[in-house]
Amino acid sequence: MKNISVFFFLLVAAFAGNFNQDFDITWGDGRSKILNNGKLLTLSLDKTSGSGFKSKGQYLFGKIDMQLKLVPGNSAGTVTAYYLSSLGSTHDEIDFEFLGNLSGDPYILHTNVFTQGKGSREQQFYLWFDPTKDFHTYSILWNPQSIIFSVDGSPIRQFKNLESKGVPYPKSQPMWIFSSLWDAEDWATRGGLVKTDWSQAPFTASYTNFNADQACKISSGSSSNSCSKKSSGNSWLSESLDSTGQERIKWVQKNYMIYNYCTDNKRFPQGFPPECTIA
Ligand SMILES: *[C@@H]1O[C@H](CO)[C@@H](O)[C@H](O)[C@H]1NC(C)=O
C-alpha cells in the first residue's frame, strides 16, 4: 500500500509542473506566494503594488497549459496578465489578459499577438463560465505553422504563419512565460468610469497545474534547446485545428467574441492588416 502511494505520488509529481522548479517570483515583495510544495501559486494586488512571476526557462515553440482562478467578487480595475514574451524592442509576444469587472458582470478575456515588436492585433472575448469560481485551463499551442489560444480545450483564436504573404511570424526568438496582477483602472474599466474598490483588497489570483511537457525549452544558463518528447512524441509541432477544432473556434467567435481588430473599420481606414484579409 505504502509503495503504491509513493509511486503514485511520483507519477503525479512528474506530470504536474512545480512552481518552485519552473518559475521565479519577480516582483511584488511578498504579494506572490508559492504554496503546497510548489503546486499552487498566488499573486496578489493591494493599493501599494501588484505582483508577478516569470519562467526560469525560455521556450521556442510549445504546448503550454496553465490553470488560473481569477480574482473573485468586485475585481473591476484589476488585470491578470498571462503571456509569453521574448522581451526587447523587436519582441514577439502572445497575450492572455483578464480584465476584471464589478461583481456579477463578466470578465473580458483580451488577447493579442506581437511579432517583431508590433502588436495591435487585439481580440476580446467573454467566457462561457465564471472564471473566478474554479480553475480553468488556458493554453497556447505555438508551433511553426500557427499559434492557437484555447480555453478548457476549446480553441478561441488562431494566428497563422503567413510569412509567405509578408506577415512576420514568431519563430526564432525564445520566449519566457510571465504573469502579473496589477491595477489598470484607467484602461480596463470602460475608460476609467469604474474605479477599483480598494476596500476589497488584497485581490488574489491563483495558478496551478502548469504543463509544458510538450515544448522546446531553453534552460537558463545553457544554450541547448531540448524538445521534450513526453507522451505523444513531437506531434504537437505539426498540430493544427482539425474539423472539430474549426467548428469550435467558429462557435466561440460567433457567440463570445466582443472585439476583433480585423473588423474594426474605424481603426484601419487605409485597409486592414494583411492577416485579416488573407483567407
Ligand atoms: C463589465 O461588464 C459590463 C456590463 O456587462 C460590460 O459592458 C463590460 O464589457 C465588462 N468588462 C469590462 C472590463 O468592463
From TrEMBL:
PROSITE patterns in the record, alphabetically?
GH16_1, GH16_2
Molecular function terms from GO: hydrolase activity, acting on glycosyl bonds; xyloglucan:xyloglucosyl transferase activity
The reply on keyword Membrane is no
Q: Where in the cell is it found?
A: Secreted, Cell wall; Secreted, Extracellular space, Apoplast
Q: Which GO terms describe its biological process?
A: cell wall organization
List every stretch annotated Disordered: 218-239
Q: Name one GO cellular component term.
A: apoplast
Instruction: Give the positions the UniProt entry annotates as the active site.
Output: E93, E97
Question: What top-tier enzyme class does this entry carry?
Answer: transferase
Give the family this protein belongs to, as stated in its UniProt record.
Belongs to the glycosyl hydrolase 16 family. XTH group 1 subfamily.
Q: What is this protein called?
A: Xyloglucan endotransglucosylase/hydrolase
Q: Which species is listed as the source? A: Abeliophyllum distichum
